[in-house]
Amino acid sequence: IEQYLLTQPVQFTAASRPEPLQTVRAFTVRRDDSHVDAVVQLSNLNTTWGALDHVVEVVIGGQSAGSSTVSLAPGQSWIVTRLNVPWTDAILPRAEVIIHNAEWRRSPDGAAVVVDTWEYADASFGYVDGATSGSVFQSELSFSMRNASVVGFREPEVVVLMQDENGAIVAVGSMILSSINSLETRSVRLLWP
C-alpha cells in the first residue's frame, strides 16, 4: 500500500479543490494631472477554503505597482489599493492582479468563521481652506469607525471610495490604523489634494 501511495498521483475532484480568488472589480481614478489611484477588490467565494498568504501583484497600465500578501477567510472580500501611481496619459490605465503564490487551508466542517464587522457614523465631507491652513490638501472626510467584531486588528487598512451622485468612483483614500480592538470606536480623517 505504501508503495502504491508513493507512485499514484492524488486526484482531486472539482468539488474538493478551492476556487481561485475572484477579482470583483479593478479600476483606476485620476488623482491629479500626473497620478492615478488604483483599487482591486478580491473575493474568496469558497465556503470551506481559506486563502492564506496569497501574494497579489497589482499591475497598472501593464506595469507592476508592487505586491501585497493577503489572507481571506471563506466568503470574505478584501480591497487592495495603490495610491499616487505616476501616470500622465490622458486615458486611465487598466488595473489588474496577478496571484503569484496561493496557499489554501480547508476549514473543518461546522467551524465558525470570524467575520469582520464595521460600523460607520458621523461622516462629514468638506473642503480644506488652503489659504489659512497652508495645506496642499483641498478636501477632507471625517467619520467614526467601530470594530463591531469579536476580534481586534493590527494595522488594518481603511479604504474609502468616494462616489458622485451617479455612483461613479471619483476618489480613493486609504490609511492604516496602528490597531483597533474589538468593540472600539476610532475617529478617521482622510485628506485629498
State the total count of DSSP E strands: 13
State the helical fraction: under 10%
Q: N-to-C SSE series?
A: HEEEEEEEHEEEEEE
Q: What coarse outline follows from CA principal-axis ratios?
A: globular
Average pLDDT: 86
Profile the largest sheet.
3 strands, antiparallel
Strand content: over 45%
Helix and strand content put the structural class at: mainly beta
Terminal Cα span: 67 Å
Uncertain residue ranges = none
Strand arrangement within the widest β-sheet reads 1-2-5
* Number of separate helices: 2
Gyration radius (Cα, Å) is 20 Å
Protein traits:
193 residues, mainly beta, three-stranded antiparallel beta sheet, 13 strands, 57% strand
Write up this protein.
By secondary structure, this protein is mainly beta. Helix content is 5%, strand content 57%. It is built from two helices and 13 strands; from the N terminus they run H-E-E-E-E-E-E-E-H-E-E-E-E-E-E. The chain has helices at 2-7, 130-133, and strands at 22-32, 35-43, 49-60, 63-72, 77-86, 95-106, 118-127, 139-147, 153-154, 157-163, 169-176, 179-180, 185-192. The strands form five sheets. Strands 1-2-5 form a three-stranded antiparallel sheet, with no helix packed on it. A three-stranded antiparallel sheet has the order 4-3-6, with no helix packed on it. The chain has a three-stranded antiparallel sheet with strand order 7-8-13, with no helix packed on it. Strand 3 and strand 4 form a beta hairpin. The longest helix has 6 residues, at 2-7. It is globular. The N and C termini lie far apart (67 Å). The model has no long low-confidence stretch (mean pLDDT 86).
